[in-house]
Amino acid sequence: MAGGPRRQYNNPIIRWIEYRLPIVSTMEATLGRDMPTPRNLNYWWSMGMILTVALAIQILTGIFLAMHYVPTAEGAFDSVERIMRDVNNGWMIRYMHANGASLFFAAVYIHIMRGLYYGSYKAPRELLWILGVLLLFIMMATAFIGYVLPWGQMSFWGATVITNLFSAIPLIGETLTTWIWGGFAVDNPTLNRFFSLHYLLPFVIAGITVLHIWALHVHGPSNPIGISPKGKHDTLPYHPYYTTKYLTVFGITLIIFAFFVFYEPLYLNHPDSFKPADPLSTPSHIVPEWYFLPFYAILRAIPDKLGGVVMFIASVAILFLVPFLDTSKVRSSRFRPIYKQFYWIFIADVILLGWCGSQPAGGIALLLARIGTVYYFAHFLLVMPLVGWFEKPRPIPDGISKPVIPKERGDIPTRSSPEAAE
Amino acid sequence: MSSTADKEQDKEASRRDFLFITAGAASLVGAGMAVWPFINSMNPAKDTLALATTEVDLSPIEEGQRITVMWRKKPVFIDHRTKDQIEKARNVSLSELKDPQSDNDRVQRPEWLVLVGICTHLGCIPKGQRTGDQLGEYKGWFCPCHGSHYDTSGRIRKGPAPTNLPVPPYKFTNETTIQIG
Amino acid sequence: MNNSSLLKIIISLAVLTLCNYAYAAGDAPVPPKKEWSFNGMFGTFERDKLQRGFKVYQEVCASCHSLKYINFRNLTEIGFTPEEAKFIASQAIVPGGIDDDGEPFERPGRLSDPLPRPFPNDNAARAANGGALPPDLSLITKNRNYGPNYLFALLTGYVDPPSGFELSPGMSYNKWFAGHQIAMSAPLSEDIVEYPDGTKASIDQMAEDITHFLHWAANPELEERHSLGFQVLIFLVLLTILFWFVKRAVWRKIDH
Fold first, then answer.
1. B23 and C73: CB-CB below 8 Å?
2. What's the rounded Cα separation, in Å, for the pair A349 and A356?
3. A418 falls in which pLDDT band (50, 70, 90)?
4. Hey, where are the domains in chain C?
5. Is the pLDDT of residue C250 over 70?
6. A251: which chain C residues are within 8 Å (Cβ-Cβ)?
7. Is B2's pLDDT higher than 80?
8. Helix/strand number for chain A, H first, E second
């Protein structure tokens, strides 16, 4: 990689730059197409590309929205309505931004589910996974504070409820919440700093994404059978093979996205977010956005304030530990008959929690949320280590190319190396 | 035998090239169309455009008095000219002017001169609206930033400004009211 | 993997449906569904309904409810000519700001003015309405569950309370309001407005017109959104098909 022999470039300008600052070769090595990509990646591996697109959409639409948005308690709601009504194409940019958040989370959850199913977090990709979980955390923070900015009822009360979580921290809780608010309640200073942070965090996400992709390039992506490529016959150049393969997914994603933006822009929206913030009246039924529902259910399932907050954070943070909790030597669940069953039970559990999170507090939903919460943590803390020990994996093929024998050896393109390119 | 295989390959290669170029071109077109709404969002919004007209009541302005009103967030000079000033503006031969324009072409009624009060050089606001202001060598307006002199018809006579002070679109809605814009 | 791919798709759809269902659910009764011309991918507003609805707003609702995000200039979007819109504006008296003597003054409205508000502030509105604040109507079909269906049901839902129902003084009974006690007394009655196009002003007709108008007020971009969206979707579908062919051509010789 970075220390190895540098590529020779034909373009004199690039050569000139390279000699002084080897930025092009470094970018190619860390982010570019010089990646041994297993030849058997399926469509679930396309989410990385979709997520990059989603981040780009959010940053682009966000920058243009910020040109019209007024970050004050008095002006925010009106300025958003002005964007919707008077700014040229403002409604489109705003609906793209609002639904873009859902696209982002949908893609990230599929991405995580993929990683969990195929054991993408196992050595040597632990750090890659940990960076990913960090990205998830920052994404959640960004989404939450972004939701506050339109200053509707849901914004205001969402901000109030979530910032009050910090008051559960012993000793410093009160002081901390006051500090976060910049006052004694969610108010103008809170909105102002949230706007500032909402503009900052996406660039932090972009930066960590670079590290995430860099880490990916060191050992290349994992693959559906979980066996590392044994040579050039097991890999393909990322471009044009995977770029074209995933362009189709990109197209389908855009179709779904456009459908929501133009035809169902408010499908995932709560009507109360179109009422201006009123500090004197709480909406009768506060629900977070769909992508927070499972975690919200865990928060509410714990009868203790501090305990709820701890479990709420732990429910995401536990993902950090996944590479160390899974004791199985086999990566892919394809060869793990028992773990595979547990995997789907886990997915069902998360959906159950999501449903519980959307229901009014109390009743059957609370009971189910408690059972679901216990199982959620049991999956990571008990199932992952124990199944890894006791499970007898199915026979594993010798290599990626083994199951399918190529027709003609000569047709297999190998990874493009400088020599081969000449 | 090998030549038919070559032809096969050629055909396929050209098919691939065609697909690549079409897909690439279509993506570029799509990206281009997607960029426009964003650029357009920076143009004046509908509410901004709606405020593009200003009505001014001329009745309180006495002869020889000048007032400044706002139109599209820009100062507009309204000058109730005296006979003397009108005379001065008319008695200039066009050949003397840097930006030749007769006074008649710049007013709808000779006693009322309406100008966008922004120096055509680099956008400063010329002096001459308030009593005691410097009026410049031609007794019209004087831009203190870089020394442009305008006459009683708002025409550039001396200094770096390239053109006359522009006349905004306006109309008399009745005897004593004009609507600018 | 095919089974599980399918499963994942089903699961994601289930999540979407579930949370939407959950969001919509509340304590209020579910109003009946009604056909609206603005529903669906090709939905548009009907100009005559919009204009009649505006008349209902002006003559019935405007005495208590503001419509603060709508300006006179927007009336050209519902089929009034600029001259008609100007005339409607000039009939209104709006605050003109501060005059040269430092006093607030009033003047006839212009196209750039928002529709005048019935009360100078929320407290005045509360005081004039027995403590209840008549909500602004600009976003009413967006910030109520079931949107237009709810609004129509509410306006036509004033009936006698069932026997034994304790109605607080000053309140009215409404079938579709959460808790059934609403501070707004029945706003519509037969022929309360006279339509210039000769349409009979029945309660149902007026409720439908005003709902139509207010749905436009909440979503003035709807028609542009629908028509632009269709073009975008067509383009994206063609592009995706093209991408698919490119992928096939590239992967032709690879076993995978």
1. no
2. 10
3. very low
4. 36-70+115-158+186-244
5. yes
6. 236, 239-240, 243-244
7. no
8. 17, 2
CB atoms C239 and B12 under 8 Å: no
Judgement on whether residues B63 and B30 belong to the same structural domain of the protein: no
* Inside any domain, residue A353: yes
- Domain encompassing residue B29: 1-43
Q: What is the pLDDT of residues C94-138, one digit of tens each?
A: 988 887 788 998 988 988 899 999 999 999 999 999 889 999 999
Residue C10: what residue type? Answer: I
User: Is residue B7 located within the same domain as residue B61?
Assistant: no
- pLDDT band at B125, cuts 50/70/90? very high
A180-214 pLDDT, tens digit per residue, is: 999 999 999 999 999 999 999 999 999 999 999 99
Q: Stretch A348-364: mean pLDDT, rounded?
A: 92
The fold of the C36-70+115-158+186-244 domain, in CATH, is Cytochrome Bc1 Complex; Chain D, domain 2 (1.10.760)
pTM reported for the whole predicted model: 0.89
- Going by C-alpha positions, the residue among A102, A165, A55, A135 that lies closest to residue A293 is A102
- Best to test chain C binding among B12, B19, B20 (most C CBs inside 10 Å): B19
In contact, C91 and C30? CB cutoff 8 Å: no
Angstrom CA distances, A362 to A176, A304, A316, A370, stand at: 29, 14, 23, 11
Task: Identify whether residues A274 and A330 lie together within a single domain.
Answer: no
Contact: A89, B48; criterion CB under 8 Å: no
CATH of the domain at A149: 1.20.810.10
Query: Residue A87 and residue B37: Cβ atoms within 8 Å?
Result: no
- CA–CA dist A312, A101 (Å, integer): 21
Specify whether B149 is catalytic: no
Instruction: Give me the interface pTM, i.e. the ipTM.
Output: 0.90
Cα distance between residue A108 and residue A49, in whole Å: 11
Which residue type, as a one-letter code, is found at position A308? Answer: G
pLDDT of res. A393 = 94
Query: Do B4 and B25 belong to one domain?
Result: yes
The answer to the question of residue A280 being in a domain is yes
Three-class HEC string of chain C: CHHHHHHHHHHHHHHHHHHHHHHHCCCCCCCCCCCCCCCCCCCCCCHHHHHHHHHHHHHHHCCCCCCCCCEHHHHHHHCCCHHHHHHHHHCCEEEEEECCCCCEEEEECCCCCECCCCCCCHHHHHHHCCCCCCCCCCCCCCCCCCHHHHHHHHHCCECCCCCCCCCCCCCEEECCCCCCEECCCCCCCCCCCCCCCCCCCCHHHHHHHHHHHHHHHHCCCHHHHHHHHHHHHHHHHHHHHHHHHHHHHHHCCCCC
Structurally, how many domains does chain A consist of? Answer: 2
Residue of B46, B173, B180 to mutate, interface with C, max C Cβ within 10 Å:
B46
